[in-house]
Amino acid sequence: MHALPEDDTGVRIARLRRERHLTQRALSDLSGVPYSTLTKTEQGVLPATPHVIAACARAMRVEVATIVGQPYMSELRADELDVLIRPVREALDIYDLGPDPDIQPRRPEELQQEAESLCAAVRAGEIKQAASNVAGLIEEATTAAHVNGTSMGWLTLASFYRTSYDVAAKLGFPDLAQLSLARMDWAAQRGSDAVLGGMHQYLRALTHLREGKYRTGQRLVALGLSTIRQADESQERKVVTGQLHLGGAVMAGRAHDEHQALEHLGEAEWIAAATGESVKVHWLAFGPTNVKVHRVSVLAELDQYGEAVEATNGLTIPKDWPKSRTSHHFAEVARAQMWTGKLEASFQSLLLARKTAPQQAKYHPTVRETYAGLEAAHRRLPESFLSYGSWLGSVASR
User: Are 199 and 271 in a shared domain?
Assistant: First the structure.
């Protein structure tokens, strides 16, 4: 008996393919996905990798979110997160209306502290807390920015827009994530911050990574690197430059361009040696640890799963590392372990992803695809495996 809904990724690919009157052979030819891989993915024998999902989405001209089933609305309703999305959309729509006469904003320093607190909440995996507060804070900061017209005010507003992007991206609303980034860029330009401009292009590239648009994503990484060169030399500039290279590495890896992926990783590693662990600089968690973590991700994207698992040897996550990033790493490790036949180890990594940041893990496509792959691959897993699937399927264990 399946713990997850029967309408999984493979089933969706098959249904979308039939709706477009395509045979499996035709979709294989259009997408470049090997025929045997496509048929086994549709049957649920093989889990769908991000590369396969993106290739099928491009070939059938649908969004990646349509194939993976995001947003997971029944789960969002169960967790009372669905009602928080509309206020965020409404807050993003008032950006150019000037000050609201009914809002008396707090001092700039207080709002800036609120912005930092929200960033910290997201990195701690507290998505519901961030989603609950960000809409009202965007409205307050919008009025404050228009009234004061200071660089600090606009950059604080840009930070709140970044949090709305984080919330939307993690909960599976790509259109809302893109709108949030457009607003972030609008505010950052008024704050005249080239570093933030470079980071905007990094986050924008990530939206295209999720959508399987690697060529556009790589162009955005290049634009971000060009933008940030306009900033004065600083630790912030180094950190964002390094993070852009890490984003470029994953982008190239998912496009199966090993040479470019390793070049980006090399650049990031060189920069990280100079910056050291800079976890809280723009909350990017950049540093030597993040380079090692991204190496695992890149090797997995290149389908070099054995090498990805080996790259975890000796990799220790610092205690002050953001829980959201740690949880994502465990999800990536679980995927690599599953593909190398280490089923029990893979499930243990999924448990760690959940334990570290449960709100994020529940809505993470990699967690879901890996769980589905484990279920299809073997039944020799502990009883807690089915309860994990029930949790993912919104029969929440509280």
Answer: yes
